[in-house]
Amino acid sequence: MHLAKLLPVAVKEDKSRLPPQLLEKLKPLKTRRPGRFLLELVGAWLVIFSVIALAVHLDHWLMTVTAILLVATRQNILGLLVHDQAHCTGFKPYPGDIIANLFAAYPLMVLTVEGYSRIHLTHHAKYFTEQDPDHIRKSGEEWNYPMRTAQFLKILGGDLLGLNAIKLIKGKQAAPKGRVFVRQNRVPRWLRPAYYLLLATILTATGTWGIFLLYWVLPLVTVFQLIVRWGAVCEHQYNRLGARVQENTPLITMRWWERLLLPNLNFSYHIYHHYFPGISFSQLPKVHDVFVRHGLVDDEAVFHGYWSYLRFILSPGTDSDRGESTRQ
């Protein structure tokens, strides 16, 4: 499979060759941040409950559409918090995994912290090898960027209509090959079914199944799937077996309004997450600043805003024209 244009390399050094002075400056950042984790978790649920309550009260199609969109963005926050708890940057596995499961993973219906950890930590350990579950499930033309605009819109349309939800869900639950990472202090098996039984009981007793299906399940299988797709596209350039992290991971600095409309817990600094998975999402901008001060970031290879990166993945060409494609 041929890639028309390789990703520009924004970070100049491999993790193994980083200067000791830089590593020393990052040591204070390698601590758990439970306060920030809880702040994002509570903030997400406040937005969710507020917009749903307002939509039900106003009973207008425009507010309904707005609520569906906003709920999907906060469902994405919940998924990203599950990702961070997989690395224990929020809480210790116990009782942190229970907190993350009850308030972030279980509401998304198909996730658990322990299940996601098994797959995601394998991705880190077996990065873009034949044992990397992310590389395996994101191989093929569907993940081959850059691509034609019409093909890209067709894929996003399938996500928005819920047509790709089952395939994406199955991909996230695929068992990794080789060594399996088992989460210590495992969550009690009875907790998840008890959670859904309680949820069904509450919805039945309050007569709110309709609200739940419209304002939670519908965005979960439609808009949320589109957001997850975009996050994955911004995460790595796929179909590159054996690639190093800095070779197929874009560095994207978001505009303030992008962070407002589509908050992503600094996920666009994803290369730093792979270099230092024990650093909380809240500290990744500080990591970027340290790399910049040490002259390890090629600004011409940085995508300044989502629009800049979108233009790159929709403009097949050669490596010779990549410099122009990375500027907004």
Beta percentage is: under 5%
Strand order of the largest sheet: 1-2
- Secondary-structure element order, as H and E? HHHHHHHHHHHHEHHHEHH
Number of domains: 1
Residue share in helix? 55-70%
Model description:
Helix 3 runs antiparallel to helix 4 (93-105) and helix 7 (149-160) packs across helix 11 (223-235). This protein has one domain (15-325). It has a two-stranded parallel ribbon with strand order 1-2. Helices cover 58% and strands 1% of the residues. The chain starts with 19 loop residues before the first helix and ends with a helix. It has helices at residues 20-26, 34-58, 61-86, 93-105, 113-125, 133-137, 149-160, 165-172, 191-206, 209-221, 223-235, 245-248, 256-261, 270-275, 284-293, 306-313, 322-325; strands at residues 252-253, 303-304.
Summed up, what is this model?
The chain is an all-alpha fold and 328 residues long. It has helices at residues 20-26, 34-58, 61-86, 93-105, 113-125, 133-137, 149-160, 165-172, 191-206, 209-221, 223-235, 245-248, 256-261, 270-275, 284-293, 306-313, 322-325, and strands at 252-253, 303-304. Residues 60-304 form the Fatty acid desaturase domain.
Keywords:
single chain; two-stranded parallel ribbon; globular; disordered C terminus; FA_desaturase_dom; Fatty acid desaturase, type 2
Write the layout of secondary structure elements.
Blueprint: H1 20-26, H2 34-58, H3 61-86, H4 93-105, H5 113-125, H6 133-137, H7 149-160, H8 165-172, H9 191-206, H10 209-221, H11 223-235, H12 245-248, E1 252-253, H13 256-261, H14 270-275, H15 284-293, E2 303-304, H16 306-313, H17 322-325
Parallel strand pairs: 1-2
Helix pairs in contact: 2-3, 3-4, 3-5, 3-10, 3-11, 7-11
Transmembrane segments: 37-55, 61-82, 194-218
Keywords: Membrane, Transmembrane, Transmembrane helix
Protein name: Fatty acid desaturase, type 2
